[in-house]
């Protein structure tokens, strides 16, 4: 493998990892603070991708599609939250798993009804549909760099909010002791709705910007969900830092695994997870 | 170390980051005595009990049980050695009946590992012991009641029953009378007093009346350190203790 | 927790069992020429009931929610498929022990890794390990990839030259599965009422307290995990015999999700509930599949409704019919008493 190829894989791994981080951060926040395990999280990623596909076809403009799709996704998240998650806060994880599993069935099938079972593509949008010369031998897609940039910015924002704002402190406190936070006069209900909506928005947004990079197909939410679970397990529940580094590790491992050991590629992330569990059963940054 | 010392600590210390919760504590417990640990909130009493029962390891120092070092052992191992413990926050099996709670407690010292085929006999012995213990704690009328359906006071009595069921030689009781009314407190006081012919008790308690009535010796802790340790009378009349803990008023103390 | 149910439950179950056991007698009268098809369906329900029961040991009894139980189900299927010789039937005398042995080993290895995790973590790691095996099998050559492996001959159950039971005959196989299910039920019933079962109850209720009492809770959980896995693998083996093939979907998390659905439909922690749940699930599936090709929506909605409205499942209805439950729930609405304990992540706030 020559240097240029290595460079491309490195960047790809980073880009994939950063996208995973967006999704995983929503997942880990929802787990950590609300104590809810939401299997339908991956379905939101799928919905983001399909929405952007649909709206891009309608408007002919990718950016407009995203602008319209984001509020739709948030609205959907709010509906789900108010309808179902309300009852799940107080319940066992088992019931959350079951209910959200039922949700996956409903959402996946709804997608089939609306958009059918075909595989779709969204073209890489202007003005990023070009390659840029990074070094003598290394050309790289500008759009991918854009995606990385966006993810990094969002990561920075999330980090900033969590670490340096009053909201962030409330979130971190809520992750440790929800009742205490309530006792301090904070409307936990609203806080939860906010967290859930943000989590959903991040995931759907990840689906939207990832759309030009992957194929939009039924069940795409399922596989990304499991990968994100692995990320959260490795990183530690409720830890944004853990989600970040876990995502980078998994992103790199998947990308390099696919080129170095294709036969074992799909297993690599689970082997890593097993290794982490052996040493740190609660994750790297628990 | 003389023969009748069941438990002793030497230089026991526990830090949490910058906070020294237990600071160089030396004290000992004699066989068949009731030894109370007193101190204002934050004095380190619960941390001390957690160190003794193995729930947390010490940062420094030793815990000697029958002259053998046990610091650093897990709660599980220490329970197996004959040290039983009750918790400050009621820690029972809410969905099981009282009898089942005590049976589980008794089993660990009486049953085999998977030995249900081995022992209709053991099952019976376990059940008998559990009934015995419930009777001692005056809970036998609640034997088949689900634990979570009982009153708070009864649940705390169940906790004591469970500790008894494990037939420990040393009992560590963390505020056994917390939240109890006067009658229940009197009941429990009587119960604990009756146990000394078979057991050794270490008590953390706030209820001063009960402590002075029950305890043979008292160790007073403040800010993680031992302020004074000695027979009840000595503590009761100690100026140091009175200043720090009881305030400068005369008698008439309740926690 | 008490594992003792009202007499009517026993009567109902006995009646249902008798109905099922005598199907060959009345099947044709009711279903006409569909009878053979129905027999196949019924056999499948028995097999899935075994699968669901095995998960109940983990989820309902010990309180460990596994989203990867299909790992063992598929493992049983693939062990059968891969170990069967190409041109003649295997002998059940070594096939069954092989399936048990393989699943016990895998259960031990996976168990050692996952048992140390709690609550949400346990759910996620079991899911991930299930998927690991899924990907491994579906991308591998020797296991036929996504197509799976066909089973040419069902194993034979013979002593020397005499056939004890002809497992190729649908009726005999049906009874074989029925007997296996009953054996599994009786085994679990014994297990849960034994000392071991009591310890599992205690672990479910307050693991921390169990440890403080001196119990090596991880060991008990591991044993339960392995037992559940072995039972699921036996079910998988039977399923492969019934379908005639092993394929990766049997390992996938959708299968793990399906068996969880059976648990909630039937009622967890009861051992007999999952049997009802498996039947209920298959019946609903049959109805929905014939109603619309978009049946997953119906199934999804059913599960959502079940969680919201009927969390104790059919068994719950049998044990405490609505009128009686209403009386009991008002009594239990008294404010939460101070029985806090255990780690926050695993504590269930509603029974």
Order of helices and strands of chain C: HHHHHHEEEHHHEHHHHH
Q: pLDDT average of chain A, as an integer?
A: 88
Uncertain residue segments of chain A = none
Q: Give start-end ranges of low-pLDDT stretches of chain C.
A: 327-351
What is the end-to-end distance of chain A?
36 Å
Total count of helical runs of at least 4 residues of chain A:
11
Biggest sheet layout of chain C: 2 strands, antiparallel
Overall geometry of chain C: globular
Tell me the total number of β-strands of chain A. Answer: 2
Give your account of this protein's structure.
The complex is a heterotrimer of chains A (286), B (255) and C (351). With 286 residues, chain A is an all-alpha fold. Chain A has a domain at 10-123 and 136-217. Chain A has helices at 3-34, 41-59, 62-88, 93-115, 142-164, 166-176, 178-183, 188-210, 220-235, 240-260, 265-279, and strands spanning 131-133, 139-141. In chain A, strands 1-2 form a two-stranded antiparallel ribbon. Chain B has 2 domains: 1-82 and 168-255, 3-Layer(aba) Sandwich (Rossmann fold), CATH 3.40.50.300; 92-167, no CATH class. In chain B, 36% of the residues lie in helices and 25% in strands. In chain B, a hairpin with a 2-residue loop joins strand 9 (217-222) and strand 10 (225-231). Chain B starts with a strand and ends in a 9-residue tail after the last helix. The mean pLDDT of chain B is 85. In chain C, the strands form 2 sheets. In chain C, strands 1-4 form a two-stranded antiparallel sheet. In chain C, strands 2-3 form a two-stranded antiparallel ribbon. The radius of gyration of chain C is 21 Å and the shape is globular. Chain C starts with 6 loop residues before the first helix and ends in a 19-residue tail after the last helix. Chain A binds chain C through residues 31, 35, 37, 84, 87, 90-95, 97-99, 101-106, 108-110, 112-113, 222, 226, 229-230, 232-233, 237, 263, 266-267, 270-271, 273-274, 277-278, 281-283, and chain C through 59, 65, 67, 113-114, 116-117, 119-121, 123-125, 127-129, 131-132, 135-136, 139-140, 253, 257, 260-261, 264, 268, 294, 296-297, 299-304, 306-308, 311, 344-345, 348-350. Chain B: One of its GO terms (molecular function) is ATP binding. Chain B: Keywords: ATP-binding, Nucleotide-binding, Transport. Chain B: InterPro entries: AAA+_ATPase, ABC_AA/LPS_Transport, ABC_transporter-like_ATP-bd, P-loop_NTPase.
């Amino acid at each position: 493998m020559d240097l240029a190829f290595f460079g491309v894989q490195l960047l790809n791994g980073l880009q994939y990892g950063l996208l995973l981080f967006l999704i995983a951060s929503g997942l880990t926040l929802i787990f950590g603070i609300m104590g809810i395990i939401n299997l339908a999280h991956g379905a939101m990623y799928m919905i983001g991708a399909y929405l952007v596909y649909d709206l891009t076809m309608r408007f002919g403009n990718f950016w407009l599609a995203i602008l319209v799709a984001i509020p739709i996704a948030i609205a959907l998240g709010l509906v789900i939250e108010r309808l179902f998650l309300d009852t799940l806060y107080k319940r066992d994880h088992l019931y959350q798993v079951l209910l959200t599993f039922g949700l996956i069935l409903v959402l996946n099938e709804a997608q089939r009804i609306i958009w059918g079972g075909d595989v779709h593509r969204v073209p890489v949008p202007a003005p990023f549909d070009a390659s840029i010369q990074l070094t003598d031998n290394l050309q790289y897609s500008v759009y991918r760099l854009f995606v990385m940039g966006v993810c990094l910015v969002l990561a920075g924002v999330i980090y900033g909010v969590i670490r340096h704002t009053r909201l962030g402190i409330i979130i971190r406190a809520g992750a440790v002791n929800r009742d205490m936070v309530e006792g301090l006069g904070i409307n936990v209900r609203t806080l939860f709705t906010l967290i859930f909506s943000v989590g959903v928005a991040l995931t759907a947004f990840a689906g939207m910007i990832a759309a030009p990079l992957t194929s939009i197909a039924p069940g795409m939410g399922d596989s990304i969900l499991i990968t994100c679970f692995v990320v959260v397990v490795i990183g530690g529940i409720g830890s944004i830092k853990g989600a970040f580094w876990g995502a980078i590790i998994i992103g790199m491992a998947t990308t390099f695994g696919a080129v170095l050991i294709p036969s074992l590629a799909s297993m690599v992330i689970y082997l890593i997870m097993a290794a982490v569990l052996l040493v740190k059963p609660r994750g790297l940054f628990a | 170390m003389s023969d009748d010392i069941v438990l002793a600590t030497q230089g026991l210390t526990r830090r949490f980051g910058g906070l020294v919760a237990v600071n160089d504590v030396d004290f000992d417990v004699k066989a068949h005595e009731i030894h109370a640990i007193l101190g204002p909130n934050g004095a380190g009493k619960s941390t001390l009990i957690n160190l003794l029962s193995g729930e947390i390891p010490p940062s420094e120092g030793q815990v000697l049980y029958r002259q053998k070092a046990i610091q650093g052992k897990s709660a599980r191992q220490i329970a197996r050695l004959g040290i039983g413990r009750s918790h400050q926050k009621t820690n029972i099996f809410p969905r099981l009946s009282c009898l089942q709670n005590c049976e589980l407690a008794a089993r660990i010292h009486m049953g085999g590992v998977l030995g249900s085929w081995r022992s209709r006999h053991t099952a019976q012995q376990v059940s008998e012991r559990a009934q015995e213990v419930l009777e001692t704690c005056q809970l036998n009328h609640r034997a088949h009641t689900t634990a979570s359906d009982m009153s708070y006071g009864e649940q705390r009595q169940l906790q004591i029953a469970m500790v008894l069921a494990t037939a420990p030689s040393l009992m560590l009781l963390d505020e056994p009378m917390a939240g109890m009314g006067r009658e229940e407190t009197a009941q429990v006081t009587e119960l604990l007093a009756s146990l000394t012919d078979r057991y050794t008790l270490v008590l953390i308690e706030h209820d001063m009346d009960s402590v002075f009535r029950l305890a043979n010796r008292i160790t007073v802790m403040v800010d993680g350190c031992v302020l004074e340790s000695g027979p009840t009378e000595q503590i009761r009349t100690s100026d140091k203790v009175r200043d720090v803990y009881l305030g400068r008023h005369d008698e008439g103390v309740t926690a | 927790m008490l594992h003792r149910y009202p007499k009517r439950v026993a009567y109902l179950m006995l009646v249902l069992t008798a109905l099922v056991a005598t199907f060959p007698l009345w099947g044709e009268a009711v279903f006409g020429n569909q009878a053979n098809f129905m027999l196949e369906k019924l056999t499948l329900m028995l097999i899935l009931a075994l699968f669901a029961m095995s998960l109940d040991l983990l989820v309902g009894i010990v309180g460990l929610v596994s989203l990867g139980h299909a790992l063992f189900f598929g493992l049983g299927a693939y062990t059968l498929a891969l170990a069967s010789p190409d041109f003649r039937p295997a002998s059940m005398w070594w096939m069954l022990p092989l399936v048990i042995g393989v699943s016990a080993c895998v259960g031990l290895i996976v168990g050692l890794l996952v048992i140390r995790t709690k609550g949400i973590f346990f759910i996620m790691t079991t899911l991930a390990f299930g998927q690991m095996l899924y990907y491994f099998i579906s991308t591998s050559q020797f296991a036929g990839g996504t197509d799976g492996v066909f089973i040419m001959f069902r194993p034979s159950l013979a002593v020397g030259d005499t056939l004890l039971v002809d497992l190729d005959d649908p009726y005999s196989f049906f009874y074989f599965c029925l007997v296996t299910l009953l054996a599994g039920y009786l085994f679990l019933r014994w297990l849960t009422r034994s000392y071991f079962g009591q310890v599992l109850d205690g672990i479910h209720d307050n693991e921390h307290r169990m440890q403080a009492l001196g119990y090596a809770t991880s060991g008990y959980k591991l044993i339960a995990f392995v037992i559940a896995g072995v039972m699921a693998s036996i079910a998988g083996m039977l399923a492969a015999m019934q379908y005639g093939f092993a394929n990766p979907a049997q390992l996938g998390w959708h299968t793990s999700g399906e068996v969880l659905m059976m648990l909630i439909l039937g009622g967890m922690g009861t051992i007999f509930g999952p049997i009802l749940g498996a039947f209920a699930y298959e019946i609903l599936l049959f109805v929905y599949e014939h109603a619309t090709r978009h049946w997953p929506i119906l199934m999804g909605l059913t599960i959502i409704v079940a969680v919201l409205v009927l969390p104790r499942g059919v068994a719950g209805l049998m044990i405490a019919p609505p009128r009686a439950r209403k009386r009991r729930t008002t009594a239990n609405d008294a404010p939460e008493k101070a029985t806090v304990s255990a780690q926050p992540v695993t504590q269930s706030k509603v029974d």
